[in-house]
Amino acid sequence: MTTWLIILGGIYIGLLVYATIDARRRINTSDDYVMAGSDIGLFFGFLTFAATLFSTFTLLGMPDFFRTHGIGSWIFLAVADAGMAFVIVWFAFHLRRKAFEKGFNGVAGLLRDCYRNRWAGYLYLGGIFVFLVPYVAVQVRGIGIFLNAVFPDTLPVWGWASSIVVAMLIYSELGGLKAIIYSDALQGSVLFTVTGIIAYGCVENFGGVSAMFEQVKAENAALLSVPGPKGLFTTQFLLASFLVILMVPITQPQLTTRLVILRDMRTAHRMAVAVGLFALLLILMIIPIGLYGAINYADASVIDFLANTIIFDQAPVVAAAVAIGLIAAAMSTADSQIFALGTELRSLLSGDEKKVMKTTKLAIICFAMAGLVVAIISGNQLVLLARVSFAGTAMMAPFVLAAILSSRPPGLEIIVATAAGLLLFLGSVTGFVPEMVGPFRLDLLLLLSLSTLTILSLVYRKFTHATSGGEHAKAQSWS
């Protein structure tokens, strides 16, 4: 494995260096740096969106999720991600139209302009900072734990995590968003390929798909149904998770920005279909990996199960490709989110462009360090930690949609309600607020309440505007 690791690692580093140099050569303006020139075609658009969406937890979180909770995970992950493809098409149309009307440097700046209130931009920036930093931590901690288990005498977990953060800062600071997109293309291709190879090997080990399900049924039949052995997949959990994942392209700026910088709407349509198909196939391939662990490593720790399944039980060349793919996944997703945080801050700044860019680059470094700290102190429940991140940002979906879909500035009450909802959800995550309100999950109740309040606010303001307009017209006619 070591020989193959050196060979494949050298190839990956060489490609990444070349991509960074090429991206830096193409930077002529600040827009080129933060928006990649706003002319991304289908191939890179699809790969950068898919790679940003699917990251380290694809191989370090999802297999254990299937091993522990069964194939109900398919509903939680694949069906919701496929449904998200339809949201991408619809939202991309309205977002790009609003961005053309108002100009676009980031979602925070766009919200400030739509609401005509600077607090709208500050609220969005604060919300994504609080809930994206844990997702950055998912990437670097996950790969740090894994590499420490596979190469125990090389670096501690924090050493691997720090190395990854430094590496991604180098190429993202030098090459901007274009370098990140190139990195995404590499990561997405490698991740999909190695996942397919491992899944095929697991199915072959069972003796076929039918034999796989028969063995799992004999060992633990609860893995083949919901709510699963642990009772996680309740109706409310699945509904809340489905809605949360649908909101990801609306509320997470690293994905929202990619919808804006696509070449045209035709490219957006094709990209959405490709991402939906990618999601279905990729997560389908995770099922046999998780069930393989349920049969062969049912009582093993998470890291032992993963190390054996995707490294030690594989051919050396496959194991080396997995290690490289996981490192690439950690970097390409984490750098997208960190860079997006910097971009959102930039959209709220004004003044000399050179000073703004210096502040933006410094902020990117600070955000990366925050993610590294959380990675070092956080736990190992990667998929659930990722879901908390998705759920937290999803609370801002009605707030964002009100700005994008309304032709007039939405009301201050939406900003206040969203801020209160974020605080309540954060309280439930930290244990200060109950996760259940009577028979209802708090996250589901908050999302539905914020959606209802936002709709009522928009309808009321539209009605009062129409009424006042009619009264004004009558007064002018009488005069």
Automatic annotation (TrEMBL):
Chief location of this protein within or outside the cell: membrane
Keywords of this entry: Cell membrane, Ion transport, Membrane, Sodium, Sodium transport, Symport, Transmembrane, Transmembrane helix, Transport
Catalysed reaction equations from the record: L-proline(in) + Na(+)(in) = L-proline(out) + Na(+)(out)
InterPro entries assigned: Na/Glc_symporter_sf, Na/solute_symporter, Sodium:Solute_Symporter
Places the protein is found: Cell membrane
Membrane-protein topology: Multi-pass membrane protein
GO molecular function: symporter activity
Similarity comment: Belongs to the sodium:solute symporter (SSF) (TC 2.A.21) family.
UniProt name for this protein: Sodium:solute symporter family protein
